[in-house]
Amino acid sequence: MKLENLKPAKGATHNSKRVGRGQGSGKGGTATRGTKGAQARAGMPIQRRLPKFGFKNPTRVAFKGVNVATIQALSEKLGLKEFDVETFIAAGIASKGELVKVLGNGEITAKVEVKANAFSKSAIAKIEAAGGKATVIATVIE
Fold it and tell me: Residue by residue, what is the 3-state secondary structure of the chain?
């Protein structure tokens, strides 16, 4: 027996199965995991494991909601009588480029003039009941 003659016993070692290396290897395609199921998806990124669902509307118009109670609070705090989108951006309520919709949550007693991209019916009613004016400005979508 010599050192250069030593080798493992017959059948003790084997080459590892190289799967997922193309059709020519005979183990491509599904990589011997079968077609579907949890075992077939093990080790796969989560966005590939989970099915797609739902719908993303490409023409959706998103508004930043501002309640009349917020306008009342700003009017009392800053003493403003006219509000527009730039006022809401300066106050930190909306971000630059956002469309603003005034909503009717809360009460308003201040006589204010509000210019926004959209209004709810209740917001218009509350602003006009307090003696104010609600004006819809043009919505520019880029």
Answer: CCHHHCCCCCCCCCCCCCCCCCHHHCCCCCCCCCCCCCCCCCCCCHHHHCCCCCCCCCCCCCEEEEEHHHHHHHHHHHCCCEECHHHHHHCCCCCCCCEEEEECCCCCCCCCEEEECEECHHHHHHHHHCCCEEEECCCCCC
Hey, how many other C-beta atoms are within 10 angstroms of the C-beta on 88?
22
**Residues pairing with 82 in the sheet:** 113
Instruction: Let me know: does 113 contact 81? Beta carbons within 8 Å.
Output: yes
What is the pTM (predicted TM-score) of this model?
0.62
pLDDT score for 13: 94
> Partners of 139 in the beta sheet?
none
